[in-house]
Design brief:
By secondary structure, the protein is an alpha/beta fold. Helices cover about 30% and strands about 25% of the residues. The structure holds nicotinamide-adenine-dinucleotide (NAD).
């Protein structure tokens, strides 16, 4: 069993999820590589946040508030960096310059220029393995959809709708945090935060938008600052992007709608995708994470939707019974399995069985940048493929 020693930079929500995934590696009996977390860096080292890491990582030997110290630790072979978007460029490029393998977080740079700088560092360090966290593709139903795309099961694509909807920002009393501040989160607003997750499957399928008409809205314009006052909340809350995409398999163009919303009443964490094709169609939503809706069509036959219970049909074999439902923590574990599997073998068991690539992140940035232009111009903006 090969061991990869990891450092975590950013001990927030996502940093903790990695600690939990690494602790559950015993779920994955076929893996021949495993992570071992030896270092944690966070901006502040206050209890109880940092105590949680100390208490729960028996292999931890370094805790620091300076990411450069962690990157100069020769024990650390790979890093997971989960920090606010304004720090991605500096931290990711420094990690690569230090020769570390990198799992970065979306959106892989606060804007297009930052993303281009990260991609230049990726090209400069071909020996570093670099991927972006993208767990939703590992839900069993989504893996099944991916295999259908690979097999050309949909026929000619008629329409694709994908989205990610949250509802908690409907509450105007929810205090502001960095994800709602332009300088930390970026001009993209909700697109930079939720959009990469929405793009992962369609972009991997090769359904790349050629143009976009975006309608963005800032619904709640100020929020409690947590100190008794109010602070401006300038980020886009909701974004609807109507794009024209082309299916590389059939060459035909089709409408592709992406929605990212922080203010979607009644929604908690609803990632969804709908693909309508001439031979098959699917609908999938995390609101019913165990169920894939599938319509298979033969010319002249009935057009009837069936509901398929997915259970634990995961790509990286798990000890969990195949009839047990899969949850977000399970797919985060699958995502880490994919990262390490590909790091070790240089390939994945299928086209949709790998994490998002830096090249895919460049396509997100082109789309979101064009969407900002579309919102400003009120017109459809084309997206260059250069
Ligand atoms: N994959 C997903 O589903 C998912 C979900 C949420 C967030 N994210 C992404 O993860 C990243 C972090 O988001 P989060 O929700 O974990 O945020 P968070 O606010 O919970 O955590 C960020 C952490 O970074 C630390 N930090 C800030 N500045 C630092 C510095 N200079 N040095 C070291 N640490 C520093 C903060 O102290 C905090 O603990 C973002 O890129 C976000 O888009 C991904």
């Amino acid at each position: 069993m090969r061991t990869v020693r990891f450092g975590i930079i950013g001990g927030g929500m996502m940093g903790r999820e990695f600690v939990s995934a690494a602790a559950r590696w015993l779920h994955l009996p076929e893996m021949t590589i495993r992570p071992e977390i030896v270092a944690v860096c966070n901006r502040t080292l206050d209890a109880p946040k940092i105590d949680w890491f100390r208490k729960n990582i028996p292999t931890l030997t370094q805790v620091t508030s300076d990411y450069r110290e962690l990157l100069s630790n020769p024990q650390v072979e790979a890093v997971y960096i989960a920090v606010p978007h304004n720090l991605h460029e500096e931290f990711y490029t420094a990690a690569l310059d230090a020769g570390k393998h990198l799992m970065g977080e979306k959106p892989f740079g606060i804007d297009l220029a930052a993303n281009e700088s990260i991609l230049a560092a990726v090209r400069k360090h071909p020996d570093c393995f670099v991927r972006c966290a993208s767990q939703f593709v590992f839900f069993p139903a989504v893996q099944r959809i991916g295999r259908m795309i690979e097999a050309g099961a949909f026929g000619q694509i008629i329409e694709v709708n994908a989205g990610f909807l949250h509802g908690s920002d409907l509450n105007p009393r929810k205090p502001i945090n960095w994800k709602r501040i332009v300088k930390d989160n970026g001009e993209y607003g909700v697109m930079g935060d939720l959009g990469p997750h929405v793009c992962t499957v369609p972009f991997r399928a090769g359904w790349i938008p050629r143009n976009v008409r975006a309608v963005l809205s800032n619904i709640v314009r100020e929020r409690p600052d947590g100190k008794g006052g109010m602070a401006p909340c300038e980020t886009w809350d909701n974004a609807t992007l109507l794009c024209e995409a082309q299916d590389p398999a059939s060459g035909s163009a089709f409408p592709f709608t992406l929605r990212t919303e922080r203010i979607a009443p009644g929604q908690k964490n609803n990632w969804y995708i709908e693909i309508y094709g001439t031979r098959a169609s699917v609908r999938y939503s995390l609101n019913e994470a165990n169920t894939l809706e599938l319509l298979e069509y033969t010319p002249g036959g009935a057009q009837s939707w069936q509901k398929v219970g997915m259970g634990h049909e995961v790509t990286y074999q798990s000890i969990t019974s195949e009839i047990f439902q899969c949850g977000v923590c399970d797919v985060i574990l699958q995502m880490w399995a994919a990262f390490l599997y590909e790091l070790e073998r240089g390939e994945t068991p299928g086209r949709f069985a790998g994490c998002a690539t830096p090249e895919e992140s460049a396509l997100w940035h082109k789309l979101f940048t064009a969407a900002l232009e579309s919102q400003a111009s009120g017109a459809t903006e084309s997206i260059s493929d250069s």
